[in-house]
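hey all, quick one before standup. I had two proteins in the batch that finished overnight and I want to keep them in one place so we stop losing track of which output belongs to which input. First protein below, input sequence then structure tokens straight from the run.
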Amino acid sequence: MSDLSRLFSDLWSVLWGMSLWVKIGFLGQAAFTARFLVQWVASEKKKASVVPVAFWWLSIIGGLVLLAYAIHNRDPVIIVGQATGLLVYIRNLMLVQRARSRGAKRTKKDQKDQGEPAELESTTRPHRVDSAAKKIPWS
């Protein structure tokens, strides 16, 4: 057996031997880590620091899964940390939605005033990459 196949065999044995709750904890951590990758890719494409909406959704998913893991383990430190974080993530999504609603209303008003379609300004759509050439599907 080669070293590489032995490594994968040993890794599989470790993963298979974990409890369901440890696997759930790792799943939550993976979702939580993925949000940084999404933010990094979006920022690289925009050539500026941006926070796509997917960042907040992954934060909520990862936070909920890690909160469930913390509750199962009765860990008050992680419970408080994840619960507090969830409030922040939800509030940020609410702010993004409010800004989008204002932008849509402004665009509708501009179209009515000018009698022609108006482009939605990038400042009215926070956390989005609006360049058609560099569109990011999850933002």
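OK second protein, same deal, sequence then tokens:
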Amino acid sequence: MNRQTNISDNTKRLTGIAAFSALAFGASLLTNIPVGFLTFDAKDAVITIASFIYGPISAVFMSFITTLLEFVSIGNTGIYGALMDFVSTLSFTLTASIIYEYKRDLKGALIALGSASTFYTIVMMAANLIITPLYMGVSASAVKAMIPTMLLPFNVAKAFMNSALVMFLYKPTSRLVRRIGFAKPSDSNSTPARRDALIFLSIAGAFFATAIVIFVLLRK
């Protein structure tokens, strides 16, 4: 009986991860917003929400699957662009999910998303210096010149936007997924204080507004 239950639970888990992978790919298609020669999409937020539910390993799987789907369908930057996309998504989603795995509350979510935003931005600056010259055919010095005016503000805004979307959408999404049986009930039954929840949502709003302002300025 327990073995059958485990098989059923694993099947539901895999089904949920597959569904979120499809949603992440859909987000990359529907929220593809050009900012200069860069683009923003919300797939990192979708994958992060799923990895908060299913754990860090799911972040690796979904990051790879969505990158592969984009590469064979809509990708126009070749293997280097796909590599950049994979590094970008994985650095944010895996960092956030690892930290949240060990501290599953509002404070943990803030630490996870703040750490993920910081690590993601650092990784992308390094990746841009190494990979961008290869697929854009420009010098490393030309990429360095773009860091303060385009690359750094864009990646900060992207991290803030994805963090804000996770903050706004994780709780209702996780409740729905658990209610329909595609994830185990949460280990934490505590309800955050109203004041803490309001502070959390206020931070999410500030992240969202900051990201919008940066994107608007970069598109001018």
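Flagging for whoever picks this up: Residues 2-219 form a domain with the Arp2/3 complex 21 kDa subunit ARPC3 fold (CATH 1.10.1760.20). The chain has a mean pLDDT of 87.
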